[in-house]
Amino acid sequence: MKDSNKLVQEYLASIPFDRRLYRQDIEGSIAHVGMLAKQAIIAESDAETIIEGLESIQKEIEQGEFQFKTELEDIHMNIEARLFEKIGDVAGKLHTARSRNDQIALDLRLFVKEEIGRTINKIRALQTALVELAEGNKAVIMPGYTHLQQAQPVLMAHHQLAYIEMFQRDKDRLQDCMERTDVLPLGSGALAGVPYPVDHEFMADELGFSKVSANSMDAVSDRDFVVEYEAAAAITMMHLSRLAEELILWSSSEFGFIEIGEAFTTGSSIMPQKKNPDVAELARGKTGRVYGNLMGILTTMKSLPLAYNRDMQEDKEGLFDTVDTLRSSLEVFAGMMKTIKVNTERISEAMKTDYMLATELADYLVKKGLPFRQAHGVVARLGEYAISKGKNFRELDRKEYRKFSPLFGDDVYKITLESSVNARNVAGGTSPQQVGKALTRARRLIK
Ligand code: ARG
Question: Which CA distances in Å does 169 have to 175, 417, 428?
Fold first, then answer.
C-alpha cells in the first residue's frame, strides 16, 4: 500500500497528460510577462530573465531532458519550479496578476485553436482524395439506395460528392467553433479579475486572439469551446463511420463494387480469400469512443457551480483522445480513398435487372398526361407483373405494356439507366451536367 500522501498526490496530478500543453503554457507565460513589464508591474530586466529561463525550459522539454514530477501536480507548477531552479527568486514574479485558473483556460484555448486549424486541413485532404475518386468515376452509373434497396440509378461521383458536402459542413462547424474559442481569458485571475493594470489587448495581440473575455468568472469556468470541438469531432466521426460502412459493404464479395488497397486491409491467416476492411471497421468503432468523450465533458460540466472547480481538470484526457483519434482517422481515410479501385463490371451486374427504372416509367406516364399517383399505381402493377414473369421492364413487349396503360408507346424502350440519370438535371441532381458543376464547386471548396 502506498501512503495516503502519495496516493492523493497521484490522484490529483494532471502532469501525466497536461505536459502536452507545455508549449502553450510557455507561450502564454512569455506574453504575460512581456505585458507585466510593459505595464511596469515588474521590471523590464526581470521580465527578460524570466523569458530567457522559460525559453531554455522549452528547449529542455523538447530535447527530452526535462524531469516531469508528479509531486508538482501539473504542467504549470512543473515549469514554474524549474524556473526557480534556473533563475532563482525572480521566478516568483511570473505568477503576478495571474492564477492557474486563467492560465489553464488560456493553454487549452491555444491548444484547441491550433487543433481546429489542423483538423480543417486534414478534412480538406480527405475531401481532395474524394474529389479525385469522384473525378475518376464521373461516368460510372451505380444503384442509388434507400433502405439499402436499389432505388434509382445515380452517378458514382454523385454519391462521393455527397460526402464532400458532409465534410464541408464539418469544416464550417469547426470554423464556427473557432469564433468562441478565440477569446483571451488572461487577466481574469482566479475568478474576480486582478488588482493590477493589465493590458488585455496587448496579450491578445501577442497570442493571436481576436477577442478578450468579458466576464472573469465566465472566463475561468467556461469550457464550451471544448464541448463544441468535441461535438464537431463527433459529427465528423459520424460521417467517417458512414463512409466506412459503405466501404465495408461495397468491398464485400456480395457487393464487390470496390476494392480497398492492400495496405488498408488485413488478410486472414486461415481464410486466404479474405481481405478484411479493418481500417474502415476501426474508424467505425472509434466513433463510439469520440462520442463517449463528448458525453464525458458534457457530464463533467453539468451542474458545476461558478467558477473554477477541480472537476474541470477532467476536460483534458477526453479532448486529447478525441483530437488524436479524429486526426489519425482522417489521415488514414485520405490515404485509403486513394487506393480504391472501382469494379464497374460488378456494378453493372448489380443493375442487370432494371426495376430501378420504375420511377422513370411513372414519370414517363406523367409526361403523357397521367396524374403522378395513378402513374405510380400503373407502374406498381406493371412491376409486379414483370417480376412474376421473371422479366425486366425492357423485356416486356408492347402488348404487355398496353395491358397496363394505353399511354405506353414505343418510346418507352428509350428509358435506360443513362436516360434516367440524364433526366435528373436539376440543381443538386445526379445528371452528368449537374455532377460536373458539383465537381467544380468541390474543387473550389478544397482550394
Ligand atoms: N491542473 C489544473 C487543471 O487542469 C490547473 C488549474 C488548477 N487550479 C487550481 N485552482 N487548482 O484544471
Answer: 10, 31, 16
